[in-house]
Amino acid sequence: MTLLLVIGLTAAFAYAVRLSYYGAVNIKDAFAYQSSVVAAQRDSELLEVEQFDRRASTIELEPYETLLSTDLLRVDSLAESEGERAPRFSFPATRQTYETLTSDLENREKSGADRFTATVNANAHSRDISNALFALVALLFVVVVGRLRQTVEEGRSIVERLQFAFISRRRELPGVDLGSVLISSTRGSNVGGDTYDAFTLDRTHAMFLVADVSGKGIDAAVDTALIKYTIRTLFSVARDPADILTRFSGIYGASAESAGNFVVVFLAVLDLGTGAVTYASAGHEPAWSILGGRVSTLEPSGPIVSTELEAIFENRSLRLAPGDALVIATDGLTESRDPRGNLLGAAGVVVWLSEIDGVAQARADAIVRRLRKRSPQITDDLAVLVVRYVPDASLVAAG
Predict the structure, then answer these.
(1) Same domain? 138 vs 97
(2) Fewest Cβ atoms closer than 10 Å to its Cβ: which of 8, 165, 281, 311?
(3) Do 130 and 85 belong together in one domain?
(4) 3-state class (DSSP) for residue 348
(5) What's the predicted TM-score (pTM) here?
(6) 130 & 234 share domain
(7) Judging by beta carbons within 10 Å of its beta carbon (0-12, 13-18, 19+), is residue 56 exposed, middle or buried?
(8) How buried is residue 287: exposed, middle or buried, by Cβ count under 10 Å (0-12/13-18/19+)?
(9) Could you give the CA distance from residue 211 to residue 108 in angstroms, rounded to a whole number?
């Protein structure tokens, strides 16, 4: 009965993720279309005033023309039908041309409002189901989804909600001594584009994740939530890190909001009984193993996850003895610069790790102390995860 309950809850969680994510994507697209039409209306009015009322020169008009052209292109990219396509506009324009453009944009605004309302209504039932399932399976994820949905529908700031829901938190795992540090370079915010995650898959296996999302600040933080919970969901149907990254690459490529977005990811599974580690890394900065006091670099096993590449990843493996450790960090560490502009680099990290000892958190803190001393200005987000193997006797016996 317990096994059936676990299977049912896992299936419910995966189904809730699917309902909530795709519902939110549809609403976000509809909202973005409406916002782009409004922006085009504003820029059209500005350009008309500058051209006819202020009689600005051609050079002075160029920035306003560029703004309008950009917004019209965005309207086109978000349109779902011919009737939602951006109206044609060429510059220089006459008063009549502006009047026609204004009328056309008003029609697009009405279409956008209808589309947004229809999308919200169409997803209302699925949102209710997903919210109920998330409440049953994971209260924290319900909070995340609820906050994201409120952000889209109400247009309110999400900074405080993201700080509550998206910050990675270290948790205790049997047989593992964890140390972590997460630093955001965005002033006034505790969230950014770097993240880590660690949790048990079953009684004898644990998963570790470190990821770096393109961009910074709140937008990047939203993507970190997608990464963490999508990969957790994928682990409900597979345990192979390379397979998980390959599946995630397909999902990310189909759902990323911008064609230029990308993610670098390090993903590992640790056998808590034997110390065996299987890992795959998507274009990630080098990770490091510390085996018997010897520091070695773990190179990537595949390309970055992006919207432009269907990637396949390979697994690599190693074995941790008691006291051995993995250190995974994002490029905020290796690409940090000293006052003269010199990069620390992977080789510099190897030197640091060979000089640092102690429990996992002490090592993570020591890395950051050295970083702050060498680089007074931290200009990039940074995530550091130290995984030190301290096997539990009962788990070793079970293994």
Answers:
(1) no
(2) 8
(3) no
(4) helix
(5) 0.57
(6) no
(7) middle
(8) buried
(9) 39
Both tokens of 249, joined, read 């690459």
Contacts of 27 (CB under 8 A, 6+ apart): 116, 119, 120, 123, 149, 152, 153
Looking up residue 372, the CATH number of its domain turns out to be 3.60.40.10
116 and 130 share a domain? Answer: no
pLDDT tens digits, 33-56: 878 888 888 888 888 888 888 888
Q: Give the burial string for 183-214 (b: 16+ CB within 10 Å, else e).
A: bbbbeebbbbbbbbbbebeeebbbbbbbbbbb
Task: Compute how many other C-beta atoms are within 10 angstroms of the C-beta atom of residue 349.
Answer: 24
Is-contact 8 133, C-beta < 8 A? no
The share of the chain scoring above pLDDT 90, in percent, equals 30
Same domain for 105 and 207, yes or no, is no
Residues 138 and 198 in one domain: no
Distance, CA of 145 to CA of 233 (rounded, Å): 15
Q: What is the pLDDT of residue 288?
A: 97
Q: Do 61 and 51 touch, CB atoms closer than 8 A?
A: yes
3-state helix/strand/coil string of 277-335:
EEEEEECCCCEEEEECCEEEEECCCECCEECCCCCCCCCEEEECCCCCEEEEECHHHHC
DSSP 174: T
The structural domain count of the chain equals 3
Q: Are residues 246 and 274 in the same domain?
A: yes
> Which among 150, 265, 141, 267 is positioned nearest to 208, based on CA atoms?
267
Question: 264: part of which helix (H) or strand (E)?
Answer: strand 262-271
| Whether residue 79 is found in the same domain as residue 145 | no
Residue 130: which domain range?
Answer: 124-160
